[in-house]
Amino acid sequence: MGSPELNRVPGCWGRVEGGRLLGLIRNWGRRKSAVVSSKTKHQSENPHFVYDGEEIRQMLESLQRESAIVSLYFPDCPDSEYASSVFRVGQGMLLLDQVSHPEGHEVILSRREFRAMSKYKGVTITFDCRLVGVQEDGDEVHYRIAFPDRVFYPQLREFFRIKIHELRIPIHIRGHGHNTEAETAVGWIDDIGPNGVGFILEANLFIRKLDLLRYCVIRVGEDRHLTFDLQVRNVRAIVKGWRYRIGGKFVNLSSRNAALIRREVTHFQRLLCRQGQEPELD
After folding, report:
1. Taking the C-alpha atoms of 118, 60, 146 and 54 in order, what is their torsion angle to the nearest 10 degrees?
2. CA 219 to CA 210: how far, in whole Å?
3. What is the pLDDT along the chain (282 residues), one digit of tens a residue?
4. In this structure, are residues 265 and 218 in contact, taking their beta carbons and an 8 Å threshold?
5. CA atoms of 81 and 73, how far apart (whole Å)
6. Going by CATH, does the domain composed of 49-156 fall within 2.30.110.10?
7. Whole-angstrom Cα distance, residue 86 to residue 76?
8. For 111, left (φ over 0), alpha (ψ -120 to 50), or beta?
């Protein structure tokens, strides 16, 4: 026979009547459904944000353990960027190390709201910061930040594309024109991800779904370019006869070029963040 002390504890099997037990199970089910519904609602609003508090805590603690650089900046001032790091993750708040730049320190204290950017599992993440105080520990100063309610983490999906049409990055492709000879044309990238690219082409070339475009080139600097083959997955006429939106998947990628593309996608993300834009994703 179970001990009387144990049986008097609310919720133990020994003294819980059938009706009460059923009620407890129903209440637990309703609470769990409410949590799931709330989380699903947030994810449907934007699947690239993390809203779960415990998951956010794990991400921040990982940044702390790895002593990851956290760049603090103001979205309306793209050139502002001050290096910091996560000193401690607490209950309802986190502490960030003081930036070494005197002017940066003063503007952080005066403006009090800014954005943080770092790398988590190789992916650029950002979150908004609200300064609620300053904590001094001897000669060290730390910013006390309200715990973020969401973190922008775009690689929650296996495949994603980042919109970079405003950066005007050219892509060179080869296709067949009216004279059936192979011609080189220049388009402008609309979106790009680790697995493919979409671009706008203003040229009268014959390009169809499942075509293989060989020797495509993306120029990302004076002396830097990415080369790859592209399998066309979709073609949509924006202005019939001369302006098209073409999407494709990278094929025959060398490991070197695959790594370069991943690096450039991360670079584009950071560039948009510095310009005060939240990267759009498909």
Report:
1. 140
2. 24
3. 444 333 333 333 333 344 444 444 344 444 444 444 444 444 444 557 889 899 899 999 999 999 999 999 998 886 788 999 999 999 899 999 999 999 999 999 999 999 999 988 878 899 999 999 999 988 899 999 999 999 988 764 445 677 888 888 899 998 765 555 667 889 999 988 888 999 999 877 888 889 999 889 988 767 778 889 999 999 988 877 678 899 999 998 888 888 888 888 877 777 776 665 655 544
4. no
5. 5
6. yes
7. 23
8. alpha
Alpha carbon distance, N-terminus to C-terminus of the chain: 61
CATH number of 162-274: 2.40.10.220
Note the pTM of the prediction, 2 decimals: 0.49
CA distances from 80 to 70, 85, 132, 166, 249 (A): 13, 16, 21, 21, 36
| C-alpha dihedral sign at 252, 173, 266, 269 | negative
Those residues whose C-beta lies under 8 Å from the C-beta of residue 202, and which sit 6 or more positions away, are: 187, 242, 243
Q: How many CA atoms lie within 13 A of 53 on its CB side?
A: 10
CA–CA separation, 160 and 46 (whole Å): 13
